[in-house]
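Problem statement: downstream parser choked on a complex file, so we are re-checking the raw output for the flavin mononucleotide run. The parser issue turned out to be on our end (a line-ending mismatch), but while we're here, posting the original submission so the record is complete.
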Amino acid sequence: MTTTETAAPGGLAQLEARAAAELSPEALGYIRAGAGSRDTTRANAAAFRRWRVKPRVGRRPDRVDLSTTILGTRMPAPVLFAPVGVQTLAHPDGDLASARAAAQLGLTYVHSTQGAYAMEDVAAANGDGSRWYQLYWPTDDELTVSFLRRAAAAGYTHLVITLDTTLLGWRPLDLDIGYSPFLEDKGIANYTSDPVFRRKYMPAPAEVSPLATGVQFARVFQNPGLSWDRLPLIRDNWDGPILLKGIQSPRDARIAVRQGIDGIVVSNHGGRQVDGAIAALDALPPIARAVDGAVPVLFDSGIRTGRDAFTALALGADAVLVGRPYLYGLALDGQRGTRTVMRSLVEELRDEVRHARHRTHRTLSRSSLTRAR
Ligand SMILES: Cc1cc2nc3c(=O)[nH]c(=O)nc-3n(C[C@H](O)[C@H](O)[C@H](O)COP(=O)(O)O)c2cc1C
Ligand SMILES: O=C(O)C(=O)c1ccccc1
C-alpha cells in the first residue's frame, strides 16, 4: 500500500467538495440530491455530530480485529458498499470499478437493480469477492423472478430488498436542472439487459425517446402497492438470506422479524426519499432495542468517516453501508479512488476502536459514546 493510498487526500471530510470539481452539474446534482429541502440529508450528518467518542487511556490494543460475519458472509471489516444505481454518472467504469475495488479490499459489494452494468458483468468484475444483490421489486412477477434467477446464477448470495423507494423521491435539485438518469443516454444496463424486460417493456427502436424510456421505467419500478403479503413470491424464488432496506421504525422492524426476514438495513436512503424524515442515526437505537439481537441490524445514511461508522456500531448496528463517499472516490480516481475512500474509512474506524480501548468493534456499546451538549 503506498502512502497516497492510506488516506484520501484532504481527508474524507473534504471528499464531496473535491469530487464536485470533477462532476458535471447534472451528475453532482443527482448524487447529492435529497428529498425536498434536503433537510433530512443534512439531519443525517448532524445526528452524528451529537455523539462523541470516549477515548480511554492506559494500554491500547496493538491489534484491532474488525472482522465479522454477517448472515454467513465473512467481512474483514463491518463496512459494505451500499447499492448505488447509475454509477456511470461518476465514472465511465461505474459499478465495474466499484465491484473490483470491493474485491480488492475483501468488502461486500451490494449491486443495485439500477446498476449501470449488467449484474453478470459486475459479478465477473467482483471475481472471488463477496456480493449481495439489491432488488427494486418490479410490478411484473415474471421480471422479478428473472432478476432473482440471474442474481443467484451470477453468485450473489444475499438479497437486499429496498422498500423506501416504491416511488422515487421528490428531488428539487434534479427538477431544477431538468435531469433524470432515465432521460439520458447513460443506460441502466442491469435491467435493460434482462430478457424479460426486453421482451415485454423495451420500447421499440422507433419509439425510443427519453420520454418512452422514462414511462417504461415508471411502469416497471413504481410499485407503491407492495405489501407484506407479497413476500412468498420472493421466498419461492430465492434460497439465500433476505434483508429489508429502508426500515426507520421499530414497529416495522418487529414485523420484519415476525415475517421471518433474515436482516434489516436501517436507512432513509441518504435522505433522498422523504423530506423531514427522522435522521437515520436517531432511528437506530430504538430499532436495535426492538430487534434485540433476533436478526442482524445494518445501517446507512450519513456515514462519511470512520468515526461515523464507530458511532453507528456503538449505537447498535452490526455493520454499516456507505453510499455517496465511494461515488466521490469513483469520480476522483475511478477504481483506485473508490478503494482509497473505503480503505481510509476502514482504517479510521480501526483507529477509533483502538483509542476507545477495544480489541474489536463487536464490544462497542452506548457507553463507548457520550452525548455532546
Ligand atoms: C446516486 C445514488 C443512487 C442510489 N441508488 C440506490 C439504488 O439503486 N438502490 C438502493 O437501494 N439505494 C440506492 N441509493 C441509496 C444508498 O444505497 C444508501 O442508502 C445511501 O446512499 C446511504 O446514504 P449516504 O449516501 O449518506 O451514505 C442511492 C444513493 C445515491 C446517492
Ligand atoms: O437515486 C436513487 O436514490 C435511487 O435509488 C435510484 C433509483 C432508480 C434509479 C437509480 C437510482
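For whoever reads this later: DSSP finds 16 helices and twelve strands in the chain.
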